[in-house]
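Structure first, sequence second, as always.
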C-alpha cells in the first residue's frame, strides 16, 4: 500500500509516520506538509534517507498540488489542520482555509484518483461540552463551541457526504487530548513543562476546573493505523484512554514530576466559549478493531516530561513569547 499523509511534520502526524514506517503494510509513505508554525522538519530528520519515505512541501489548500500528489496513492490519512483553539478565536480564517477547504481538496483528489481509503483525523471537541457523568459515543449530536471545532466538524461532514454520495471509502476518527514528544510549546503540557523549567508562571484559564481526557500520542497513532487497515468505510471511531483530569490537576502532576512548587500556577481570565468538560466513549474501536491503549498515563506523562527536559534544542527556538503566551486568543 502506498500511503499519503498530510501534515506529517506536525505533532501527531510525525508520530504516526514513525509508527507506520516499519510496517510492511506500507510500501511507501509520502508526507506532504506546508511547513507552517506547528510543523518541524526535525521531527522526522532520521527518515530523510529512508527509501520508503518521501517528503513534499505543499499546501492542501492548493487543489492543483493535491491532485498531482495523489496520483498512484492507495490511501490517505489527513492530519493537516490548524489546531489551536486559542488561535481560532483570534483569527478563524486560516482554520476555514486549511480545515475545510483543504479537506475538500483532498477528498476531491481522493475521489478523482480512485484512492482506496481516506481517513479524516478529527477531535472530540466536535461534540462540545459533556455534562458530569456523560460520555459521547459516535452517534451523539455534534455541538462545536469554537471555530476550530466547527471547522473540524465541517470536514467530517464533507468526508461522510463523499462516502454517501460518491461511494468514496472514508472513515472519521475523533480523539481526545493528546500529549507526548514533539508537541508544539503552545499546548498545555509542553507549555507547563517549559515555563516551569524557566521559573515562569503557568497560566491556567479560570479556576482550572475544565476537565479533559488525555491519551498518549503513541496510543493514538496505533489506533489510527488499526483504523486505516481494518476499519469499516463510512464509520466514525472515537479514540480515548479514559485518563480524565482537570487542567489544574494535570499541571499539578507535571510540577510534581519536575519537583517544582505549585506556586508557579497562575489563574488568568478564561477564554471565550471554553468548554467545561470533554469525554468520549471509545468502546466501539475496542470491540470492533481490538484496540486498547498500551501506555499508563502516569508513566507516559513522566516520559513526556523527560523528553522535553532532554530535548531543549528541539523546543528552544519554538518556545517564543507568542507560543508561551498566557492567552494567544488575545494576540
Amino acid at each position: 500500500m502506498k500511503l499519503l499523509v498530510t501534515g506529517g511534520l506536525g505533532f501527531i502526524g510525525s508520530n504516526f509516520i514513525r509508527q507506520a514506517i516499519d510496517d510492511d503494510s506500507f510500501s511507501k509513505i509520502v508526507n506532504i506538509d506546508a511547513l507552517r508554525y506547528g510543523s518541524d522538519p526535525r521531527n522526522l530528520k532520521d527518515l530523510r534517507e529512508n527509501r520508503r519515505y518521501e517528503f513534499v512541501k505543499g499546501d492542501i489548500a492548493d487543489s492543483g498540488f493535491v491532485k498531482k500528489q495523489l496520483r498512484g496513492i492507495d490511501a490517505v490519512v489527513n492530519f493537516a489542520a490548524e489546531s489551536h483553539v486559542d488561535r481560532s478565536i483570534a483569527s478563524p480564517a486560516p482554520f476555514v482555509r486549511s480545515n475545510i477547504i483543504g479537506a475538500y481538496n483532498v477528498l476531491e483528489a481522493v475521489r478523482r484518483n480512485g484512492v482506496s481509503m481516506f481517513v479524516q483525523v478529527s477531535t472530540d471537541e466536535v461534540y462540545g461540552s459533556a455534562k458530569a457523568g456523560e460520555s459521547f459515543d459516535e452517534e451523539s449530536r455534534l455541538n462545536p463551541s469554537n471555530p476550530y471545532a466547527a471547522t473540524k466538524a465541517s470536514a467530517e461532514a464533507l468526508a461522510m457526504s463523499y462516502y454517501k454520495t460518491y461511494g468514496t471509502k472514508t472513515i472519521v476518527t475523533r480523539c481526545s487530548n493528546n500529549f507526548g514528544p514533539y508537541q508544539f510549546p503552545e499546548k498545555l503540557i509542553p507549555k507547563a513543562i517549559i515555563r516551569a523549567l524557566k521559573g515562569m508562571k503557568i497560566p491556567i484559564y479560570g479556576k482550572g476546573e475544565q476537565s479533559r481526557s488525555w491519551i498518549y500520542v503513541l496510543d493514538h497513532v496505533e489506533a489510527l493505523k488499526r483504523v486505516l487497515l481494518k476499519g469499516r468505510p463510512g464509520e466514525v471511531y472515537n479514540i480515548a484512554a479514559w485518563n480524565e483530569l482537570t487542567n489544574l490537576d494535570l499541571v499539578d502532576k507535571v510540577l510534581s514530576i519536575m519537583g517544582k512548587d505549585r506556586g508557579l500556577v497562575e489563574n488568568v481570565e478564561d477564554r471565550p466559549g471554553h468548554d467545561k468538560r470533554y469525554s468520549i466513549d471509545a468502546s466501539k474501536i475496542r470491540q470492533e478493531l481490538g484496540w486498547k491503549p498500551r501506555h499508563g498515563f502516569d508513566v507516559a506523562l513522566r516520559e513526556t516530561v523527560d523528553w522535553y527536559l532532554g530535548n531543549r534544542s528541539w523546543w528552544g527556538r519554538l518556545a517564543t513569547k507568542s507560543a508561551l503566551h498566557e492567552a494567544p486568543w488575545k494576540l
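Margin note: The mean pLDDT is 94.
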